[in-house]
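Take a minute with the sequence and fold tokens given here and flag any structure token that looks odd. Thanks in advance.
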Amino acid sequence: MAKVRLDALTRAKVLLLGFSVIPLGFIAYHLFRLIGIDEVSSGIANQIFLVLLLFGWTGSYLFRVFTGKMTFVEQRKRYLEEYDKLTSAELQARFESMSEEEQINLLKELEKD
């Protein structure tokens, strides 16, 4: 059976992840303030942190796009594998249900092509 990812991102999880960036920015700002950086520099450092986080997230997405490891591509690959198995089994069953004479005629036609 195909391996299914249990940690797949649903729409709700993506929204939750997106909204979690807001408190992350708030926490980062106050952590910069706690280590002794003034307000303006702490705000700038926080923006740099969030922009780097955004670039990392976008970079990981682009990496998955170019390597073909996106969810849709993986689902399609699993579907095609299962479809090929099913189709092969059905064709084998149909071939075996034919008479010996029909099987020979079919094989001769395939050899011509």
